[in-house]
């Protein structure tokens, strides 16, 4: 008898691969359909910050989801290493939010005070403690807040590990498979139609096509859908690591790797699917990086790249069952897809297998608020986020 998948996953990014691994581990027959190769897009381009606290202004549904996902990372990393031999460089190194002026320091402290009241660990460093514990940070900095439980992973290693682990657990990958639409029969998902006219059948379809999710016909998304938000990164190299936590300054973030590389990120731009790395962005990022850690002036410039975060107008991911039976959406993770991958994988696997998800996913429903939030048009929401986000993932 030929192997027929129970579930087709559209997209082989960190979300699609995470879901495939989780489903395959639970014994489901699953095939990932990827138009390019797994990890070809945003997921391998990400900086890999696990910024559950960094990324949240205040407690709320996204904060709760992010904490739940961050908690799962140590087990993910151990299991992936055991099953594949690949170290995803999971480091609970903390994220240091650095302030350059007294007003800024007050603002930063106020912002994280809300999280502290909700039980998150926050540590304050005055100028002296900052110099003592993180001497690479500029002397101009007046203080910092350490988010000790945030951390980092190496996204390209994570993607390699997820693919290998999924295949070892029985999942199949079909590369070069461009999905044009979800096939619906009698009101339920029945498979997908590929660009070459092939129909692949399955009772369950998961759309995890990142920034391209709105282009998959039949995908059900909230108003505004999912749009690309370009981010650019410059990679530097120093002979030995200068610092271990992720540094988050007013104009850039710096993510260290164990081998001495440092990722400088990032921009947030709404320019459609234009892939170029721009001179202006590189200049701004390098200026900001050297301002934050002066020793980086001597670093080698290794590479630069850009990719597209799957942005939604309300800033929340889209995770849940669609109106069409058997169709599950897993997209719109914007700046936090790497962070949110473990919890998304568990939730989606539960939905596909018809069991109760481990967390409340009501706020992330694909069929949420068919009307935009009062007073927030998609464009004004975007402008607000864009100003806030120049320095974030
Ligand atoms: C510069 C930058 C920095 C970032 N830093 C961080 C960070 O520090 N921490 C963090 O948590 N997140 C970060 N992110 C966000 C994170 O990268 C994304 O949220 C995450 O990768 C989204 O994963 P995904 O699987 O949904 O999308 P993607 O990785 O884009 O994967 C989608 C896949 O679907 C495939 N596909 C699309 N359409 C089709 C189709 N029709 N048929 C078949 N296949 C299709 C694509 O080829 C692609 O491989 C960053 C993003 C960028 C751009």
Summed up, the domain count is 2
* Small ligands present: flavin-adenine dinucleotide
In the CATH hierarchy, what is the superfamily of the largest domain? Answer: FAD/NAD(P)-binding domain
Percent in helix: 25-40%
Tell me the structural class.
Answer: alpha/beta
Give the N-to-C terminal Cα separation. 47 Å
Unreliable residue runs = 372-393
SSE pattern: EHEHEHEHEHEEHEEEEEEEEEHEEEHH
Largest sheet: 8 strands, mixed
**CATH architecture classification name of the largest domain:** 3-Layer(bba) Sandwich
Using only C-alpha atoms, the radius of gyration works out to 21 Å
How many β strands by DSSP? 19
Query: What share of residues are in beta strands?
Result: 15-25%
Strand order of the largest sheet: 5-6-4-14-15-16-13-17
């Amino acid at each position: 008898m030929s192997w027929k998948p129970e579930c087709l996953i559209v997209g082989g990014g960190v979300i699609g691969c995470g879901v495939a691994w989780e489903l395959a581990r639970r014994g489901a027959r699953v095939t990932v359909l990827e138009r390019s190769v797994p990890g070809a897009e945003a997921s391998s381009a990400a900086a890999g910050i696990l910024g559950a606290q960094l990324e949240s202004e205040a407690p709320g549904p996204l904060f709760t989801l992010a904490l739940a996902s961050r908690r799962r990372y140590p087990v993910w990393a151990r299991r992936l290493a055991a099953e594949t031999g690949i170290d995803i460089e999971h480091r609970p190194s903390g994220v240091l939010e650095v302030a350059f002026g007294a007003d800024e320091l007050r603002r930063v402290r106020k912002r994280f005070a809300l999280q502290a009241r909700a039980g998150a660990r926050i540590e304050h460093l005055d100028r002296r403690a900052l110099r003592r514990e993180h001497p690479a940070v500029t002397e101009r900095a007046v203080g910092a807040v350490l988010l000790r439980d945030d951390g980092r992973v190496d996204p390209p290693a994570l993607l390699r590990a997820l693919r290998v682990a999924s295949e070892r657990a029985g999942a199949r990958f079909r590369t070069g498979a461009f999905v044009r639409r979800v096939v619906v029969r009698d009101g339920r998902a029945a498979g997908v139609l590929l660009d070459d006219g092939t129909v692949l059948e399955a009772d369950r379809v998961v759309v995890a096509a990142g920034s391209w999710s709105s282009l998959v016909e039949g995908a059900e998304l909230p108003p505004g859908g999912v749009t690309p938000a370009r981010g650019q990164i410059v990679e530097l190299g120093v002979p030995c690591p200068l610092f271990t936590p992720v540094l988050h300054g007013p104009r850039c973030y710096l993510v260290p790797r164990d081998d001495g590389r440092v990722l400088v990120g990032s921009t947030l731009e709404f320019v459609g699917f234009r892939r170029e790395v721009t001179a202006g962005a590189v200049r701004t990022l390098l200026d900001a990086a050297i301002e934050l850690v002066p020793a980086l002036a001597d670093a080698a410039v290794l590479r630069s790249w850009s990719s597209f975060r799957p942005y939604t107008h309300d800033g929340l991911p889209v995770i849940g069952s669609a109106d069409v039976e058997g169709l599950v959406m897993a997209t719109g993770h914007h700046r936090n897809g790497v962070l949110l991958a473990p919890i998304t994988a568990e939730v989606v696997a539960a939905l596909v297998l018809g069991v109760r998800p481990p967390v409340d996913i009501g706020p992330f429903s694909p069929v949420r608020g068919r009307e935009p939030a009062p007073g927030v048009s998609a464009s004004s929401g975007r402008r607000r986020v864009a100003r806030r986000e120049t320095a974030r993932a």
